[in-house]
Design goal:
Elements (H helix, E strand, L loop, with lengths): L2 E11 L10 E5 L4 E7 L4 E6 L11 E7 L10 E7 L4 E6 L3 E5 L1 H5 L5 E6 L4 E6 L5 E6 L3 E6 L4 E6 L28 H5 L18 E4 L5 E8 L4 E8 L4 E4 L11 E2 L6 E6 L4 E6 L5 E6 L8 E8 L6 E8 L6 E11 L2 E8 L7 E6 L6 E6 L3 E10 L1 E2 L10 E6 L2 E6 L12 E4 L4 E6 L7 E6 L2 E6 L9 E7 L8 H4 L4 E7 L2 E8 L4 E9 L6 E8 L3 E7 L4 E6 L3 E6 L5 E7 L6 E5 L10 E5 L5 E3 L2 E4 L2 E7 L2 E6 L3 E6 L22 E3 L5 E5 L6 E4 L5 E4 L2 H13 L3 H11 L5 H4 L2 H6 L1 H7 L3 H9 L6 H4 L20 H16 L5 H9 L6 H14 L1 H14 L2 H10 L3 H10 L4 H12 L3 H11 L3 H10 L5 H11 L2 H7 L4 H17 L3 H10 L3 H11 L2 H10 ...
Length: about 1300
């Protein structure tokens, strides 16, 4: 879909005389010097070069002149001209056998320029250097092939014409023979027909000279020559050492033209047949591989002189000679061909004005789209081409999306807004009188008019609207006549044709007198063929003329990257806008919707894949771009399409988000490798891409689709937005989420525009309590963390369903019954009962409609659910209706329903609720059924644990309530919930049971309160007290046990003993003195204090030992990883006998857990073991190993850190106990003991505080081998933070110590 467009054109004069014969061109890629060799009328070979005059690099200066014997007026004695980069010289070879080296440096120094290397006596018929210029191959006049080094030392010499077919000759084994092929109408007779290759001959256009061509990598070369033994031209393929590899298959009328595609897959030549002229291709093995036919006209035959591939193998140049119409003269020209989808397109036909011939043509060595050309009048032409899509710049929705492809005299057009026709086919073909050189679209927004320029005329066509029909010719006029006033530019090639107004065209031509480009403005009228041309010189070389139909921007970009705005009101004026950092072969203009500014914004793409918006670099990997409304879309070398919004943003703020692997990122889309953008349609969200092989693909990028949907919603066009969502599989929640307030306010409009019940049901069924503008369709490639969900999103579904239901009820319940049912079912939670109530009401009015609605409801919900809901409504007709429509088995439900009809109302409902497992409701109905069912109620209450419900139902019936309370208390006793049982027995006035329950619960206050109410004797109180003391001591509630012993048992010694055991030293001392029992100080308090001191000291020593041991081991683990434990790996016996593993297969080891780098082996292993990770049993076993923290395992480090954390927490809690102990020791003159224990504990706390930052650091903790892949990757990516323990700040020390 791309055309060759001439960007830059420069013309320089080599000589003032005409040149006859062949001229050669070569270039120095380092200094960009161009060398040209031609033969003058005096049979002198002249070599000229540019970049020789300071200040003007375009002037050619003669650097060498060599006499030569004249062959004829039309045949040059120059055979080859090549620049040898290693030697910094030009190698010139003549047909007379002379080989010369010419040095421009020696010429500039005033020394002799020409150095004759040697001469071949028999002459040289062909010569070619290898691509690396290490070797040179030539064919002598004796038809011998010489292969020499760069220094012209002979490597090998052999005869060209031999009988041998080569080392790689193909031997047929019968496969694919002609006899086995299908021959169509020719029938089997064609299979038996034999081709007599002895009758094959040469073409009448053959110059009888050999040709040499090298493959692009320099490993093979080919020689084409007429074999005297066959009297036909034969192509032979040799390797780099000169050994014959293959010989071409016999081809009749094969011609002399020869070249090898640099990519290496095809050898090209030509073949003259009686009825056509073909360009034929051969493989390296010498077999034919396709062809295409030249576009010859009747009576004007074309003679192929040479063929030549450009540097990247994309363009084939064919140098031809053809007769001039109505004359006997001939003219030499060049055709440029490209191929896509196995079709060859003639993109350009270089024909010089005034019947001038092209006598020399060469592609540039490095720049694949740069060509050098020599005319017979002694002019050198430098041509810079570019591949571009010809389409309208209109962004209006009326644009038909036409793209034009030039193919000789044909213009192939496809309206992509309506159809996608795979090339080489098209929607519409326009055939001109001559080969088309340029095409431009008209200034109208519809893009349905084009102007085409041939070498003689400019023609205007009107295109059909949707690509169906024929194009109409609206106007045609000749190119401006060349005369003395305009010859300096009008005789040169027209380029960059643009149609800017209804009656105005603009293009540029190179002026040879001013050495600059001329901007030509053509005024024309469709009524006649008269034109007026205004030519204005441009200061510099024009690289691109661009016209924007929407904004009426006309800009010119120079070859240096400067962009100028052109005003054609009156005398054309050029106003510079900006300078691109580099020349951009592809440019466009647009506007950014920012306030009311109308500043031109330029987008440019360089041939080095750099995309600029003004002078801001947007991407360094772009391959093509297109402007669609407020979007800039471009393809990248990473095989993706990127979408940049130009809406409500300044140029300086334009930036491209990082390309992330987010499935919902609208700014990025993956493409097929090598895809490039052809066009983006404007009235629908389509992007047309062309693959490297030439086929087209139409995609609907999410960015375009969402932009279209948002625009439709903004204009309250809900139907278009809905259809776009449905067509492109966009979540319908966006209709609400894009602007909840707008949708809620215009919900009546939404239902009016989308009145179909099916569409409304589809919308309702897709609703979720989720803001899709945050989770899925984020604008501008933002992350979900940067956005906030809309208010009330947690109740979104219910809000929409209620609003839609309200409108639908107003419009008619029967009409929208399905949608109304959907609003009930889609509510959260589903309001199925309301839906069934609506069905019940409808059933009374319209039974048939109710049945249809029920069928739809069964589609939304499970039939069993609807059956149960209808049953729970106690609506038997509705139950039967559901059962019948759901096609339930009558044997399953009819007996049950018949049984229910025999019961009274409340008992019937009890049975239904019990069947539906609505136990609370069943109990309530059973309570309403009468006291005769009370025993059944008690049994049902106990079965389903419904005590509280029963209590509520019988709150006003004292006798039944008491029975229920007693049963509930017994139930709580059985469940060992003694305190609650005591409360329930208290409510039931069952004091004995309440006292026993409180006693078992340890609630001594309630126990003794009830005992006093029951008038217990002192002895009973005493016994009860000792029972309670023992219970409290078992539970280590020593302070409460002491209170019971003191208040109820009246045992002071027991009270003091409990306080001492609970380490309540001060309280024990107080109680002893309060009851005049000082003897207890010596017998209980002091011994208990010494015992407590000893225990605390032992605890501190034990904690210090544990701390030192584990901290030392932790340091050792962190400096040296633990040894691999065999038992940490899962042994899968299924893998023991697999023979698919090679000897070099890398296996995943347990040590990989400790590596922070993510390797391919570890990732593959983690994925391959995903199946075993799902085993919950192995996961639990691993957790047990982790908890044990066995030494030497991978879990030890984690275990030690957790153990030390517990140690810190224990030490923090001990501060209170230590404070009480120290303060209790001092009054009894245990000062040294108090000082010792205080200092030891204080030192321990300081050690803990010092080691805290080194112990509790972020750890790469071990991941479960049975974890999911996501858990594994998350743990490897981010180390798990270890929580540091916090030590309480308590003033526990005594300063006097």
């Amino acid at each position: 879909m791309r055309n060759l467009e001439l960007l830059g054109h420069r013309v320089s004069n080599l000589t003032s005389h005409h040149i006859k014969g062949h001229s050669l061109v070569t270039t120095d890629p380092e200094s960009f010097t161009t060398y040209v060799a031609y033969e003058d009328t005096h049979s002198n070979i002249r070599v000229v070069a540019d970049h020789s005059v300071p200040g003007d690099d375009s002037v050619f200066v003669e650097i060498a002149r060599c006499p030569s014997m004249k062959i004829s007026d039309h045949v040059s004695s120059i055979l080859s001209l090549d620049y040898i980069a290693d030697l910094q010289v030009v190698c010139l070879c003549t047909v007379h056998g002379d080989i010369m080296l010419l040095s421009k440096d020696r010429f500039e120094k005033g020394e002799e320029t020409v150095e004759i290397i040697g001469s071949v006596d028999s002459g040289i018929l062909a010569l070619s250097w290898s691509p690396d210029q290490d070797l040179v191959v030539l064919v002598t006049g004796e038809k011998k092939v010489l292969e020499m080094t760069q220094d012209f030392d002979t490597i090998t010499e052999f005869h060209l014409h031999v009988e041998d077919q080569g080392e790689g000759v193909q031997h047929s084994v019968g496969w694919g023979k002609k006899e086995t092929q299908f021959h169509g109408r020719a029938g089997k007779a064609a299979a038996l027909e034999k081709v007599d290759v002895s009758k094959f001959g040469t073409s009448e256009d053959d110059d009888q000279k050999p040709r040499i061509a090298w493959r692009g990598d320099g490993t093979f070369f080919t020689v084409s020559d007429i074999d005297p033994n066959r009297s036909a031209r034969v192509i032979r393929i040799y390797n780099r050492e000169g050994t014959l590899q293959n010989t071409s298959e016999p081809v009749d009328k094969l011609e002399s033209a020869l070249d090898w595609r640099p990519s290496g897959n095809l050898i090209v030549s030509s073949q003259r047949l009686p009825h056509r002229h073909d360009i034929v291709f051969f493989e390296r093995n010498g077999l034919r591989h396709g062809e295409f036919t030249l576009r010859e006209t009747a009576g004007l035959k074309q003679k192929v002189l040479e063929v030549s591939w450009n540097a990247d193998s994309t363009i084939l140049a064919i140098w031809i000679e053809s007769a001039i119409l109505n004359t006997t003269k001939t003219q030499k020209s060049v055709q440029l061909w490209t191929t896509k989808n196995y079709h060859w397109y003639m993109k350009q036909h270089l024909v010089l004005s005034e019947n001038k011939s092209i006598i020399g043509f060469s592609w540039d060595i490095e720049d694949a789209l740069k060509a050098h050309m020599i005319s017979c009048t002694g002019e050198y032409h430098c041509l810079n081409y570019n591949l571009d899509v010809f389409s309208s710049t209109s962004t209006d929705d009326s644009n038909s999306g036409y793209a034009a492809v030039i193919d000789g005299a044909n213009i192939l057009l496809t309206a992509f807004a309506y159809q996608n026709v795979p090339p080489p086919m098209c929607s519409l073909t326009i055939t001109a009188e001559n080969n088309v050189q340029l095409v431009s679209f008209g200034p109208d927004l519809s893009g349905r008019r084009i102007v085409a320029a041939t070498n003689e005329k400019i023609v205007i066509y009107q295109l059909p609207e949707k690509g169906f029909g024929k194009a109409e010719t609206q106007a045609s006029f000749n190119l401006p006549k060349i005369d003395a006033s305009n010859r300096s530019y009008a005789a040169n090639i027209i380029r960059q044709l643009r149609w800017i107004k209804e009656d105005t065209l603009i293009y540029c031509q190179y002026d040879t007198e001013l050495n600059t480009d001329m901007v030509c403005i053509v005024q024309f009228s469709s009524g006649n063929d008269r034109t007026s041309v205004t030519a204005v010189p441009f200061d510099g070389s024009i690289g691109r003329i661009y016209f924007n139909v929407n904004c009426q921007d006309l800009v010119i970009e120079s070859m240096e990257g400067s962009v100028y705005e052109v005003s054609i009101q009156g005398k054309p004026e050029f106003t510079q806008l900006l300078d691109f950092p580099n020349f951009c072969p592809w440019i466009a203009t647009t506007r950014i919707n920012q306030s009311n500014e109308s500043e031109i914004v330029l987008v440019g793409l360089t041939d080095r894949s750099k995309l600029y918006v003004n002078d801001n670099l947007i991407s360094a990997s772009a391959t093509s771009f297109f402007l669609r409304h407020n979007w800039l879309v471009f393809s990248t070398t990473n095989h993706s399409a990127r979408f940049l919004s130009l809406e409500n943003v300044s140029v300086n703020d334009l930036k491209l988000p990082d390309e992330a692997n987010d499935a919902y990122d609208e700014t990025s889309r993956r493409l097929e490798r090598g895809s490039k953008i052809v066009i983006a349609t404007h009235h629908k969200p389509s992007l047309i891409l062309q693959m490297p092989r030439g086929n087209l693909e139409t995609v609907s990028p999410r960015a375009f689709v969402l932009a279209t949907i948002r625009d439709s919603l903004k204009h309250l066009d809900f139907r278009s937005a809905f259809i776009a969502c449905r067509k492109n599989r966009i979540d319908l929640n966006i209709l609400y989420d894009d602007c909840p307030e707008r949708f809620t306010e215009h919900i009546h409009t939404f239902i009016q525009q989308v009145p179909e019940s099916d569409y409304l049901n589809l919308f309702l069924s897709n609703l979720r309590n989720e803001d899709t503008t945050v989770t899925m369709y984020r604008r501008g490639g933002k992350n979900a963390d940067e956005l906030t969900a809309a208010q009330g999103v947690e109740n979104k579904v219910n809000t929409i369903c209620e609003a839609v239901r309200t409108v639908l009820v107003q419009l008619g319940t029967e009409r929208y019954i399905q949608s109304i049912l959907s609003t009930y079912v889609r509510s959260s939670p589903p309001d199925v009962e309301s839906a069934m109530s609506l069905l019940s009401e409808l059933r009374e009015k319209n039974f048939a409609a109710a049945e249809d609605a029920l069928k739809y409801t069964i589609f939304l919900c499970k039939a069993d659910l609807l059956y149960n809901v209808a049953l729970g409504m106690y609506n038997f007709p509705l139950v039967l209706m559901v059962a019948q429509q759901a096609q339930m088995d009558p044997k399953e439900y009819l007996p049950f329903l018949q049984e229910l009809k025999n019961f009274e109302t409340y008992y019937q409902r009890f049975k239904i609720d019990d069947h539906l497992k609505r136990y609370k409701k069943a109990l309530k109905n059973l309570s309403l059924a009468g006291d005769k069912h009370f025993d059944e109620l008690l049994q049902y209450m106990q079965t389903h644990d419904l005590y509280t419900t029963a209590i509520e139902e019988y709150a006003t019936k004292k006798a039944q309530k008491t029975t229920i309370l007693n049963l509930y208390g017994e139930h709580l006793l059985f469940k060992t919930q003694f305190e609650e049982a005591g409360i329930i027995f208290t409510l039931a006035s069952n004091s004995e049971k309440a006292l026993e329950s409180y006693r078992m619960a340890g609630c001594w206050r309630e126990t003794f309160s009830i005992a006093n109410q029951l008038k217990y004797t002192d002895e009973e109180i005493h016994n009860l007290a000792y029972d309670m003391i023992e219970y409290l001591k078992e539970k280590r509630r020593y302070l409460e046990a002491a209170t019971v012993a003191n208040d109820y048992a009246k045992d002071i010694e027991e009270a003091v003993d409990c306080l001492v055991k609970g380490s309540h030293w001060k309280e024990a001392q107080r109680v002893s003195y309060a009851h005049q029992r000082a003897d207890l100080i010596e017998t209980h308090v002091k011994p208990g204090l010494i015992e407590g001191f000893t225990q605390v000291e032992d605890d501190i020593d034990e904690m210090m030992a544990q701390f030192h041991k584990q901290s030392t081991r932790l340091v050792e683990l962190r400096t040296r990883k633990p040894d691999l434990a065999v038992d940490n790996l899962v042994n899968d016996e299924a893998l023991d006998n697999i023979d698919m593993f090679s000897d070099t297969t890398s296996m995943y080891s347990q040590f990989t857990r400790y590596t922070s780098a993510s390797s391919r082996v570890s990732s593959v292993s983690s994925q391959s073991s995903a199946r075993s990770r799902k085993t919950s049993k192995l996961r639990r076993k691993e957790e047990r190993k982790r908890a044990r923290g066995k030494k030497g395992t991978v879990f030890e480090e984690e275990y030690i850190v957790n153990s030390l954390r517990k140690l810190y927490e224990k030490a923090s809690l001990m501060q209170n106990d230590m404070a009480q102990l120290v303060r209790a020791l001092i009054p009894f003159e245990y000062i040294e003991e108090a000082r010792a224990i205080q200092n030891k504990f204080d030192k321990f706390l300081q050690e803990l505080e010092t080691a805290l930052p080194t112990i509790f650091v972020p750890l790469q903790l071990v991941v479960s081998r049975f974890a999911s892949i996501e858990e594994y990757e998350a743990a490897v990516k981010e180390p798990q933070q270890v929580e540091k323990p916090v030590t309480a700040k308590i003033d526990w020390k005594l300063q006097l110590l």
